[in-house]
Amino acid sequence: MRPRRARTSTTAPTTGGSCTAAAWNAGTVYVGGNQVSYNGHTWQAKWWTQGETPGTADVWADQGACGGGETTTPPAGGCPAAWNASTAYAGGSTVSYGGHKYTAKWWTQNETPGNHDVWTDNGAC
User: Fold this and answer.
1) CA dist., res. 15 & res. 115, Å (int)
2) Were 81 and a residue from 23, 25, 30, 112 both cysteine, which residue would form a disulfide, CB within 3.0 to 4.6 Å?
């Protein structure tokens, strides 16, 4: 009878779970406490910010790695970044929703473009 060889596993290490925060968006306004995912990490805003990349600006606190994170890429075709219900937007912020570009008239969060007066429809993009 032949001796049995032990099996070895080549499973990759885990990275701490899934990213549950929405992907960071350069055109979105974030306020202190808002969380985003960027390059496989969760980041938390320390104060109001817009356009400052997590990991390169002091406004973002790294909350650690999260598996399944995505790398955020700039929007293509002239449309601003997609609207996100959990993101706070200041007046003047632009988003895309349903193939249209919208501009916030004042601070808003969780108010769907096209369904609330806070958003101005700037037409198709």
Assistant:
1) 39
2) 25
The one-character DSSP state at 23 is: B
> Distance (Å, rounded) from C-alpha 80 to C-alpha 101?
7
Q: Tokens in use for 6? A: 């032990």
Spatial CA neighbour of 86 closest among 35, 10, 18: 35
- Residue 20: Cβ within 10 Å count: 10
- For the whole model, what pTM was predicted? 0.44
Are the C-beta atoms of 52 and 60 separated by less than 8 Å?
Answer: yes
User: Within its chain, how far is the Cα of 53 from the centroid?
Assistant: 11
* Bridging pattern class, strands 88-89 and 94-97: unpaired
Residue 93 in this model has a pLDDT that exceeds 70? yes
Mean pLDDT of the chain: 78
